[in-house]
Amino acid sequence: MQLAVEDSELWRAFDLDATTTGTIALATGVVALLVVLLRMPWRLARNVMTIVHEAGHALVAVLAGRRLQGITLHSDTSGVTVSRGKPEGPGMVLTTLAGYPAPAVLGLGFAALVSGENLSAVLVIAALLLLGVLVMVRNAYGVFAVLVSAAVLGGIGFFAGPGVQAAFVYVMTWFLLLGSVRPVFELHAKRRRGAARDSDADQLARLTGLPATIWLLVLVVLTVTCLVVGGMLLVEPAVAGPL
């Protein structure tokens, strides 16, 4: 999967200066924000957030030396990642912690690549992520959700022009950064209503002895920090202005 022109030549090919590039960054950020805030678009796009969330659990589980059993994705946009290993200890804590910050961390990485004009790398990494999740998915809806996401990514990567690809990469990066924050606050709201008592935050509380509220605060800090830093990387041309 590659861009129609080299990444470093993308803005020159469309005669885009820093100001125009900054405008595109801001416009795509608004689009992504609307997707996150509006109920119906969020309901559909949240499946992508769940895929990345579960991929975060799976990747850290493997890095921590745990044995990955599989991933299940549900139509209500929830998911479960099962791994085998010690039921406690640092590896289990890190595996449990990894889910909610995963989209934010991935978005931050994408923002760094976009800032360096490495747009094709974003598409390749996204494709590899979907492939890795597809291999580990253990239910029909999960396979369907990953294949739909892969079809969209493949259509953009192989058939769209460089301008559309660039806009897509910006929107995807913004969506990961902005969308990572909303699930944390949704989880807080559910816990206040007495629901979601087996959430990642509650599991972390049982594993560490620290209150779930503290872990919720940690998740907020991690996701918001990634959003701020990643957002600064994306809007840097707009802030810098013309040279």
TrEMBL record:
Segments passing through the bilayer: 20-38, 93-113, 119-137, 144-161, 167-185, 214-235
Alphabetized UniProt keyword annotations: Membrane, Transmembrane, Transmembrane helix
InterPro entries documented for this protein: Peptidase_M50B-like
A Pfam family matched in the record: Peptidase_M50B
PANTHER family, per the entry: OS02G0221600 PROTEIN (PTHR33979), PEPTIDASE M50B-LIKE-DOMAIN-CONTAINING PROTEIN (PTHR33979:SF2)
Protein name per UniProt: M50 family metallopeptidase
Species: Prauserella cavernicola
